[in-house]
Amino acid sequence: MRTVVERQFAKGDRIGWTDVPSTYEAAEAIAGRKLDRRVNYAIIEGEVHSACNWSSTCSGCEGHGCSECGHHGVSRNSVWVPLLPKEYES
Ligand SMILES: [Zn+2]
Predict the structure, then answer these.
(1) C-alpha of residue 57 to centroid of ligand 1, in Å
(2) What pLDDT digit, counting tens, does each position of 68-77 carry?
(3) What predicted TM-score, i.e. pTM, was given to this entire model?
């Protein structure tokens, strides 16, 4: 299921944080527009970020399979990317 989380940093601490459940409505209020329900979002420091997911060949075994990638030869990656201003979206 797709979700929205809000990242809450521990006071005075940029390293420790917790992701607490939020809503698409809350993220839309910040972004000022409708958001894609097929995408995960995170509210980080008052800005909406969308999940960027990709798969790549495992760097440990180059696709042959090892314990690090669960013997699939593929590693899954994910980062939070700040939403682009509306004018850059197609
Ligand atoms: Zn591997």
Answers:
(1) 8
(2) 899 999 998 8
(3) 0.73
